[in-house]
Amino acid sequence: MAFDSRLLAGVSVLASVVESGSFTRAGAILGLTASGVSRSVSRLEERIGVRLLDRSTRSLRLTNEGARLYELAAPHLSGIEEAASLAAGAVGQAQGLLRASVNPIFARNVLAPRLPEFAARYPELRLILVQQPDAGDLVAEGVDVAIRFGPQPDSTLSSRLLLETRVLTVASPAYLAAMGRPERPMDLMGHECIQFMDPQRGRPFEWEFRRSHETVMVKAGGRFTFTDADMMVEACLAGLGIAQVLAFAVGGHLAAGALVELFPNWPDETFPLYAVRPSRRLSPAKVEAFLSFCEEIATPRNP
């Protein structure tokens, strides 16, 4: 049976729509208009005889048949991309421009001090670091890879776990001298507990404590809610109240005695850090280089 190049082109367009989330964004990637992308998908549907996308004015959603086609075809599209890279001699060469969105806590405490090493290792790679909410749209922002905290929702995004850091409950010596030290998590209900906003859900994180097979949820209340982790830590250092923070972000403050860990006997509450890409296909060499470097520098600091 003769190979139908039109079928391959149509499946490639469909994959771009799935991975970008819209006809307009897929068109920007492929150099087509949104209407051109739509017509290409329609021709593919006509060619194979099934509807692949449910379209509305607000969203696109794969049908069951479309999801199955994408699941089976995406690895082969990746193989074609890899073959083309091999033919061009580009595999293994991390070069060009990489746009990365990096959570500021990881960027400040882990990545920034090691960037000279990254620059020396990949002299042909240029890096643009941007700050974006952990729930931001990678495709819309033109981001190649993001480093984000928190569980990642199911989507067409590809995610890789980099580390899990402990969540610590801390306060300043000044606060504890004035208000007393809580002896157990449930005692927090009588204290000023500084809240931090979950960017994915739009509400403050719940206060959860774990040890072995035991889990305790505490309704910790407070008048102050932050969206900036550094500002929250500074407020905690100043004696505003009790905060839950990531271990590797406050190691220096703990060592200096500026902050006190309140419940070291509840050590098992952790928070994950993920590397996220806007595609499930084979990652380009420049993206893989950045991800491997982040994995390398994250692992030794995993508390």
TrEMBL record:
Query: Which InterPro entries would you find in this protein's record?
Result: LysR-type_TF_proteobact-type, LysR_HTH_N, LysR_subst-bd, WH-like_DNA-bd_sf, WH_DNA-bd_sf
Q: Does the keyword Transcription regulation apply?
A: yes
Domain named HTH lysR-type is located at 13-63
Superkingdom assignment? Bacteria
Output the Pfam families linked to this UniProt entry. Answer: HTH_1, LysR_substrate
GO molecular function, one example? DNA binding
Q: What is this protein called?
A: LysR family transcriptional regulator
Which keywords belong to this entry? DNA-binding, Transcription, Transcription regulation
Q: Which family does it belong to?
A: Belongs to the LysR transcriptional regulatory family.
